[in-house]
Amino acid sequence: MTRVLLVDDQPLLRRSLAMIIDNEPALEVVGEAADGAQAVARARATRPDVVLMDVRMPHLDGLEATRRICADPVLNATRVLVLSMFELDEYVYEALHAGASGFLLKDARPADLIDAIHRTHAGEALFAPSILTRLVAHYVGAPRPGRPVPALRALTAREVEVLTLIGGGLSNDEVATALVISVKTVKTHITHLLAKLAARDRAQLVIAAFNAGLVRPRP
């Protein structure tokens, strides 16, 4: 059972989300919050697996709430999925830097909502990896060619290859095919990348790939 905390200042939206989630046998809504301050308090009280987090809220916005939840060692198993009205919303990108695992459009279909929650809980990228890639590519400028990136010095050549492909939006199966290795080996490399780059999940690996200049933003 995946436990979900709903955070949005609109009661009607929270109720709609709760109805969709509670109809899914493997999901359970364990609490709701109307602003960021309530979100942090209720996350600590309920320790959910996934927090659906709105961005624009009174008192404490979703960005700061995400930052506090992701920085709390008590909540190290909790992942934040940001709710956004726009696919290329700068606030969503900031939320990813704050520790969120990804984003979900508010007009997403119920099936996409359920899929996103499951993927977030599993530490995967949301929807097709290319969606997250477009988001990051829109806001991250690649460093100048040849500029050293200290974070990459601890990586093996193969790990850099895997990180580059992840940044390009490839799935585990596609990375395995591109490098002619098994999916199990890809997962092992990803585990090493998460540890070496201090990343919470695949979403932050995509950001790391762009920040390191391994992948260029698309025009």
Could you characterize the architecture of this molecule?
- The chain has 219 residues and is α/β, with parallel strands linked by helices.
- It is built from ten helices and five strands, in the order βαβαβαβαβαααααα.
- The chain has helices at 11-22, 36-46, 62-71, 90-98, 110-122, 129-139, 157-167, 172-179, 183-196, 202-211, and strands at 2-7, 27-33, 50-54, 79-84, 102-105.
- It has a five-stranded parallel sheet with strand order 2-1-3-4-5, with helices on both faces.
- Strand 4 (79-84), helix 4 and strand 5 (102-105) form a beta-alpha-beta unit.
- Helix 2 packs parallel to helix 3 (62-71) and helix 7 crosses helix 10 (202-211).
- The radius of gyration is 17 Å and the shape is globular.
- It starts with a strand and ends in an 8-residue tail after the last helix.
SSE inventory with pairings:
Elements: E1 2-7, H1 11-22, E2 27-33, H2 36-46, E3 50-54, H3 62-71, E4 79-84, H4 90-98, E5 102-105, H5 110-122, H6 129-139, H7 157-167, H8 172-179, H9 183-196, H10 202-211
Parallel strand pairs: 1-2, 1-3, 3-4, 4-5
Helix pairs in contact: 2-3, 3-4, 6-10, 7-9, 7-10, 8-9
